[in-house]
Amino acid sequence: MKADGIGAAAHRLGGIGRVTGHQQYLADIRLADMLHVKLVKLDCARARIVSVDKSAAEQVPGVRLIMTADDLPQPVPRFGPQFQDRPILADGETKYHGEPVAAVAADTKEAAEEAARLVVVEHEVLEGGVFSVADALDPGAPLVQDPSIRADDQWARTNILREHRFGWGDVDAQEADLVIENLYEFPMVTHFAIEPHGFMAAPDGEGIAVWSTIQHPYLLQKTIGKLLKLPLSKVRVFAPDPGGGFGGKQNPKLEPLVAYIALHTGRPARLVLTLEETFQAVRRASAEVTVRTGLNSDGTLVFEDFECNFLIGAYVDIADRVVTKGSYLAAGPYRVPAVRIVARGILSHTTPSTAFRGFGIPQVTWARESNLDEGARALGIDRLEIRLHNLAEKGEEFVPGDTPADGHWVQSVQRAAELIGWDQPLAPGRGRGIALGLKSGPTTGLSYSTVRLLADGSVLVFSGTSDMGQGARTVFAQIASQELGVPLDRISVVMGDSSVVPYDQQTSASRSSVLMGTAVFNACLDIRNKLTALIAARFEVPESDISIEGGVVRIPDVEMTITEALQAGLGPLGGELVGNGEMRKDKDPSHPLGGSAAFFEFNTTAIELEVDPGTGEITILRHITVGDVGTALNPLQVAGQDEGAAIMGLGHTLMEHYIFDEDGRIRNLGAIDYRIPTSMDLPLQMRSDSIENADGPGPYGVKGISEGALLAVSPAVGSAVTEATGLIIRDLPLTPQRVWEAMTERA
Amino acid sequence: MKTFEYARPSTVAEAVALLEQHGPDAELLAGGTDLVIEMRNAWKVPKVVIDLKRIDELRPAIRENGQWISISSTTVMTDIAEDARIQKYFPALVESAVVVGSVQIRARATLAGNICNGSPAADTAPPLLIYRAVVAIAGPAGRHKIPIDDFIVGPGKVALGRGELVTGIELPIPRQPIGAAYTRLTRRRGTDLASITLCCSVEEGGVARIAYGSVGPRAVLVEDSSGVLADPGAPDERKSEILDEVFADASPSLRSMRASPDYRRAMLRVLGARALQTAIDRFGDAS
């Protein structure tokens, strides 16, 4: 079955359509009589809304509705995955640059755009906006969030959303030969999915239909149902395959607004954001991480002491979860006797931060791995050696009470070191770096799948996962192919319609191959059991005499294909076999994260680079990334995910960051002054490799893989820059100007 | 984008008449790679867009008459970069044309548009200054030509009167050996707007010329006839003094997101020295 089943480098299901423009993205869907929506925003961050004058805008032909907060139920409904804090439209005050104040719905996009420009919002810019950690913690700072949103919370009257404390052992009691303490800064960056976020809604009988580029369609269904007081059965969510998500499309954002517009006008309505608007809609939390690393002179880690301040936005979205999940594993894959972690999510008058590939881990990894390198240099110990010396072994409970190390991680480290040629002489002017990243996979999960074996032996797989380019369709089809012996071209995977496809918790945390993969596997098993029962009845043989393997059904003296067996079993009326599968990982209330890690994503990144001594420009000569994947269900897709994640990591490492003015406006909105790596900015050589020991919890021993290659890019690059130049830079991104400034300061 | 009228004249005279009639309400469209963005962002809201692409007189794109190479105003960057004559006589222009935008942009963007857009960061401005380009203009009063140095005025501004348009850019074929090189400073290697554009030439008699942009309202041209810059053996301190003078006119923006003034000033020196060395090497090969 290597051609189509597990381990095959099968081509992407839907891949041709995706690259030839045939895939129907949300913005390609046209409904009859559809209204086009344009947002009205202010060119400032924090302002009090005095009044909205719609009169000029209403004169534009084709304008059907100009919705403001006053047109919504009062008080203005709020929603969010963690706190019910995000209003449908700005409620009396805008809290970040680009927060929608009103929305115009018109017959044409042009009319909506023109009218949106003509809506006059009288407003008063409020001084004292909170745009940094220091701003937020100033005792005189205004409160970003209304205290009533978390009235009973001890932090309600501060800009600290929550403070979390994790750890083990007694840091203060430890005696170390060397203590290194530094502050590391990580920039605010945005997901930059090629497909912009889009939302549609239409009245649908007694309920509503909503279309979204969302990663979590079932969360959207719940959110809309709750806001509109509709049963889930009356909220139909369509989630066409997104064109990239990276976490930015996980949670509902503007779907509720578009739903209210559709219900208000009785017509379908669509809003597709511009790239500039996506910058104002989603970003990664920036972070200031102070780390104290205690080491013995032989390089043994004695303690790690972290203070992680994540600058989240004006509304929480999923940011508190990013803070906890990002900081809980701050000490990484090492054996550390004492760890103390204080982590805060700090509210600010900026774009709400949300999930983003790596989910808080890259920020903390930048600090931990860079600081470990400083320790190694101070002690005169090789940077690879110090990592191997402290690395947890398989089965070791390196975080007390959590899942023990679930892989032979040393193999990944050694493989990366070998591929970069760590022990080879280094050419003058060059530097190498090696860094380790570790992220918890999902801590809870619930996925259902239905698989239908149709009368002609072809297969339908139903899965509520969103395939945003990671290749979930392909992997699920490969599982069905493996289990039912059906070639890939006879399998279709149905996704993206909540009325047809059973529930899935979410598409996040590199979970789907493990969790939904298990549900698909179990659904196939269900079919095999039903087929066995059918055959037993039809041929009058005991079930124990029947075997189904590689698409062939064997009973004593007879061998037939699964299709022949199915048709024989079903009889003249035909029909089909329906299998159901489920995968559940329940909450563990005693665990600080609400559950132990289903698996760990472990990655080693190794870099070789050179730095232009005149301009400060970095050229990455070689980029090696090695993940501990359990089993590569599809090696081609594993490499694709690794390469994409690695390049994304180079973005925040080398060039990406939001630039604000004094009043909290994002100055570099859009592609011209927010730079992401292009094909010309890639490492001269990039190599992804996988360690496969089939030791993951998913089918065939798979672990999740989609984030690992991003986690440790920054510290590997930073370490190599230090080796090449002698400079230590603790603030990302490492732009040519920043590197040049460091060179100039030293001179 | 706001709706607009679209005109597609078939002669230069027709285009001039339309331009004269509509004045500031009209915008010219050649490649559209700047105009379409400006219209999308409502920075420009023309009532009429005049498309020059179907004017027969503006073809063929590139002509040579033994003394001059003429590049019509609808000639795109890709065609310039691939033209054997331009590669032979004006390699630094090719070096600048191949870094404008991306592959797709270069297949649409024109040389004349790059100059008429009036961006201080226009990649092709420094080499055109170095190669002594002349701009051919048609207008209600007839046709005339002006040196590129007089044509470029400031941000968004070029020396075109009401009803006037550029029909082409002409480059004198150098009679003496010349070595020239173009370089730029960007934040990444792929598509980017330059924080510095810089072109150097070394010519007979020890003359070195340096044109640079993106560090002030317009690209500027400075000539050094002392022989020092063109002399590979000249002492570094002498070179340094002269480069101080060469770059004295740089006034980089204090508010720019792309690079700090200090970084730009320092990089003028770094890139200037590198481009000069390339120009000296090429001059050696040419003579």
Task: Describe this structure as you would to a colleague.
Chain A has 747 residues and is an alpha+beta fold. Helix content of chain A is 27%, strand content 25%. Chain A contains 18 helices and 28 strands. The longest helix of chain A has 25 residues, at 515-539. The radius of gyration of chain A is 27 Å and the shape is globular. The termini of chain B are far apart. Chain B is globular and about 60 Å long. The chains are: A alpha+beta (747), B alpha+beta (287).
Tags for this model:
heterodimer, A: 747 residues, alpha+beta, Aldehyde Oxidoreductase, domain 4, Aldehyde Oxidoreductase, domain 3, 3 domains, seven-stranded mixed sheet, five-stranded mixed sheet, 27% helix, globular, B: 287 residues, Uridine Diphospho-n-acetylenolpyruvylglucosamine Reductase, domain 2, Uridine Diphospho-n-acetylenolpyruvylglucosamine Reductase, domain 3, Enolase-like, domain 1, five-stranded antiparallel sheet, 14 strands, 32% helix
